[in-house]
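Hi X.,

You mentioned you wanted examples for the new student's onboarding notes, showing what a folding record looks like when two proteins sit in one file. Here is a clean example. The first protein comes first, with its sequence line followed by its structure tokens.
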Amino acid sequence: MTPCIAKKTLTLILELGCHFLIQVKGNCNKLFAQIQLFTALCHPFSVCETIEKGHGRLEHRKVELFFNQVDLPQGWAGIQRIVRVKRWGKRKGKPFEHTAYYILSKPIDSAHVVAKGIRGHWGIENRLHWTKDVLIGEDDMTITNTNSATVVAF
């Protein structure tokens, strides 16, 4: 399991005058549970829905933006917006459904703008992983030596 994003990292980002849009996963269990409950009980103030068809799948995406009115666990400062992204549809004929949660430090009031930011991030992630998997063959590597792994990582 990957570690939860450090609260100190978010504080540093804000101190540098920057903003963050970060996915909250189950490994940040208290924050995740509070956000999940809050979004289940409250109504978003902005919603963006899209439908995409291609690559053997049909995907509906609903991005919902909430004002942060959550009683967050201690140390989670600077969160202005809560984002819930629901995705559902079919991949290779099989149905799927997934919900993701994000925290946002910039007081953006448009779910459409946030949706573009999230999709843009995934575009970068997908291109990076494709390069590492296909061109470098990272998934097929069987490195057991620590020094070799360090060299490959850089």
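Then the second protein repeats the pattern, sequence line and then tokens:
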Amino acid sequence: MATKCDSCAREESDLLAVHRVYVTPESWDTEEKVEVMAGVERWCVVCRLHYPHQPLQE
């Protein structure tokens, strides 16, 4: 049974629970910043390959 990916809404049967990660790269006037979101989302393989995330620790 396919369900929708929380990131792209693609219909998939192979979804993985992840935490979304926001990355701000270092620049001459800012430090690098990595924010791991507390909420759990279910992502398809395409989103897991292209976007920063952290697999859910079960």
